Amino acid sequence: MHKLLEQFVENISDAILVSDKEGIIRFWNSGAELIFGFTATEAIGRSLDLIIPEPLRKRHWEGFRRVMATGETKYKTSLLSSPGISKSGSRISLEFSMLLLHDENGELAGCASIMRNVNERFIKDKELRERLTVCEKELASHRSS
Asked: What is this structure's pTM?
């Protein structure tokens, strides 16, 4: 069973990554390589800043430090959405879940995330919202005529 789980974690197309309490990447699967463009060798041992867009880093680290200090998060069962950044510098729309990890003594050791690239859906949703806005304006102008 251990070998099957190892294959799953390493080879799934979703990014699976683990960071320690300081936000240093400790695990990076092949899905993370596909989504972000960094190899495991390039990512492991580096800060999560590697994939967090600059304008979002302050807010991210405030929340991350609070969670690591308290062991409490409001996102235990939520699917989160946030932009990320790839090796090429392009932004990626992400959805992800997060899990707090504890060591053998029950102490908070870091967190794990499973991330999915949702760029295509984000773009389609944006196009639909824009088309809806145009249609609503046209309908309003016809009603007022």
From this structure: 0.81
